[in-house]
UniProtKB/TrEMBL annotation:
InterPro entries: AcrB_DN_DC_subdom (IPR027463), Acrflvin-R (IPR001036). This is HAE1 family hydrophobic/amphiphilic exporter-1. SUPFAM superfamilies: Multidrug efflux transporter AcrB pore domain, PN1, PN2, PC1 and PC2 subdomains, Multidrug efflux transporter AcrB TolC docking domain, DN and DC subdomains, Multidrug efflux transporter AcrB transmembrane domain. It comes from the Bacteria. It comes from Virgibacillus natechei. Gene3D superfamilies: Multidrug efflux transporter AcrB pore domain, Multidrug efflux transporter AcrB pore domain like, Multidrug efflux transporter AcrB TolC docking domain, DN and DC subdomains, Multidrug efflux transporter AcrB transmembrane domain. It holds the Pfam family ACR_tran. Keywords: Membrane, Transmembrane, Transmembrane helix. The keyword DNA-binding does not apply. The chain crosses the membrane at residues 12-29, 331-350, 357-377, 383-407, 428-448, 460-482, 526-548, 848-867, 874-894, 900-925, 946-965, 977-1003.
Amino acid sequence: MKLVKTSVKRPVGVIILALAIIAFGLVSVRDLAVDLFPEIELPIAVVATSYGEAAPQDVESLVSEPIEAAVSSVEGIETVQSQSQSGSSLVMLMFSSGTDLDQALLDVRESVDQVGAMLPDQAGDPNIMRFNPDQMPIVTLGLTGGDTEALTDVANDDIVPYFERQEGVASVTVEGGRESEVQLVLDPEKLQQYGVSEQVIAQALNSSNQSASVGNVERGDKDLQMRVTGEFESLEDIERTIIQTETETTVYVEDIAEVNETVKETSETTLVNGEQSIVLSIMKNSDANTVGVAEVIRDGMDELNEDMVSDVNLEMVMDTSEFIEMSIDSVIQNILIAGAIAIFVLLLFLKSVRATLVVGVSIPIALVSTFALLYFSGQTLNVLTLGGLALGIGMMVDSAIVIIEHIDTYRKRGYGAVESAIKGASELAPAVIASTTTTLVVFLPIIYVEGIASDLFTPLALAVSFALITSLAAAITLVPMLSSKLLTKAMENNGRRYWFDRFLEWLRDKYQVVLEWALHHRKTTIAGTVLAIAGSLALTPLIGAELIPGSDEGQMQIRVETVPGNSAEYMEAKIEQVEEEIQGYGDIIETNFVSYGGGGMMGGSANTASYTILLVPAGERDQTTSEFVQEVDEDLQGIVGAEITVSEMSDMDMGNPIQIQLNGPEHDVLRELSDQVVNRIDTVEGVFNPETGAAEGVPQMNIEIDDDQAAMYGLNQEQILGQVQTKFTGQVVTQISEEGQEIDVTMLYPEDERSTIRDLQDMNIQSQTGSTIPLEEVASFNEVQGPVALTRENQQPQSNISSDITGRDLGSVVSDVEDELANMSLPEGYSYEIGGQAEDMAESFTELALALVFSIFLVYAVMAIQFENFLFPLIIMFALPATVVGVMIGLFVTGLPLSVVALMGVIMLAGIVVNNSIVLVDYMNILRRNGMDRYEAIIEAGRTRLRPILMMTLTTVLAMIPIALALGEGAELQQPLAVTIIFGLSVSSIFTLVLIPVVYSMFDDLSQKITGKRKKKEEA
């Protein structure tokens, strides 16, 4: 090849180009974003709407249903889900893969705008946003010391603005804070005495709190803008606001209400390690470097702490970058170990330090070049891209091994260094390119795979492909050039490592005996292979299946739920009990952060508390996170009066392992069926903490207004509803500006006037004529159990049951759960579906199975082009079925379930295992073309190619052992991939050396028979 000759003749240019690539690659590494996993794009949009303190039924009928109907016609939507709970609606829109989400969001916004006028006046403006996993906080900080209100001011005035100015920070949210509020506590007796209603007060305050421009006037040669100022600047301004009564007299606000500046009533509380704190959650920009942003935040913490008063302290609660850094460090360590193992194997076989150096130079060139290509393709450095490089270390030297061995063959024949390099590399360059191409083409079908599998493995496929392409380029340019300069003589045995040569010769003799036996017992060999494949497939039920291997990230969650309606004091007592139990694990738990009592639009309820717990690194504890979760769960079950759920958390949250969706026309029936399903699946081995989304009802007082009776007093439902809301929830009537902040002015009644049922029944409603009547005159009261939340999917009521798993694989547990559900007798019109990870697993397995079939076809096509023959590629492809034996044995021995990661390993094997067969069959054909008998050619080819086949197999297999052992943090994700390739390639190499020669001879016999019959017909 001209490229080979040019590289050998122009060594300076090749060296300069190699150094330039290395320098550019090193610069690219600095700019590559570092993350734990590749970005998983979820085509999901969210429409969130608030609605005062309305009950879930009202939220569903008045807000969720109109929005659902409006957006359902948007193109590309597959599923519309809604969750309606007290005061808020959340509508999730799931689009089909490949949908342009930017355009879809515009369509959704137009549809929601059209229905906006139909929503209640009290409903907030719908907030439409893209669902993005990057919206999860990368760092959580705790602010402790001092008064909560003062800490809130420090957080909002100093800390939030400081961090939001930092590069890469998207937003900072504050939890557990207290907002200032001005309260107008009305005096009911004074209201009645002066004949003033709440509406009159609200109108007076709004009218008095106004500023506006009213035009311009001339003054000399200048125009002066006129502006009337009347905004409230102090509490005194509010107190001195004049109110006109119905009798044409005037009173001041201070005459009928008490004006106080206080904090808003809230039930949200946050504790960090048992101490009340303000918690700040920091989100990064989608294109920002997680590790870099976290480092900026840590530096900022030190700077802020220096400026704070002594008793106030800003401390780290959660830092996701720590696990990322540990995971990346462990992968880099595995890459270095893999590289050292590959170099050792090369040195063992090549018996020359110089030859090993020539081949080994492909590794750093390929690695550094890959970093540059990853940068330009928009990828990040994560455990999968780096794991792909660690897996490909051994494969990076395969092309160089073949090239340098052939160059050495010419040196032994007496050719000069330059001529040997040119001839040896040129002759085998086409075969090496074809061999590498068979490995590369298996990744092409990944482009057409959709969903989670595509998001996870496209970066890995790109990393491995880039590494193989650059290592191939180095093999046909840099290796020949270095060989011509460094290998001044053939790689001869000069007494060193003679024991290894004797071992190889002994191995050749034993292999020849086995091969000769197989050629004389071809049917037995084929039958034995078929039995081995069938036996390995029989292990499938024992292996099981899962979606993604779990990583021990040391994060867990505890959810405490009390009976709806219990007081805040009761919840605090349960929190204290949980805290006492947690303190007993001080040597394992690093940080715990709890939030309870609600907060945020969809942030839980008054009877729910959520703990987020960070454990010490895995290397510093004897238990895995999963084992620790089960232990804590058992200990906390002794706390009575609360339902406590303990679960493991992960940065790559794939949803609940098991999720059962019940569909039907009635929420009440679905709630009953949900309880039945939970009881049934709880008996299945491996099901852990099943729970239903249809929680126990909240005590609710229904006020049923008698329209006829209300009409007699000139009232309607809207007027009565407004007055009840004002008395029992308060009404924001205006705002006051204080030190640059807008503070709500809320009008409400004294607490002792709005706390009991009697207060509700005795409440006076003002009619249009100004007279007052008790509420019970126009309404009746009925106490019921109202729902906590109502869920719908595709405009039909739905109830979700979710569960974690433990002790068993996902596939086995799902199979048993399906058996239990099949035995249930559901009412007519009700059905169920299995979702969660189980659904994603089934879809991903199907997608990857199709990708595997397509990959096998592409490998065959490449070999057919290489051999210009359809028969020889078919012979070589017989190495693939035998791969199943190694894969299944490997997963069974290591106790790993079949996962999408393991299936990705099978796809990679389709391109790797054929390389050994290509080397073997190609040499058989060469020997036969040189006149050797078929039997002798097979034996000679086997003995001759045993050494390079062993070398290529061992460099690939041994280099993956550190990954297969899952050494370091976060290594569990690549483990199935490494195990699959190690066992699959090892076993298939054995079958290749024995089975392929047998298949070759059988196909040759068949070919001769067909040819003989054809000749006889021609002669006849």
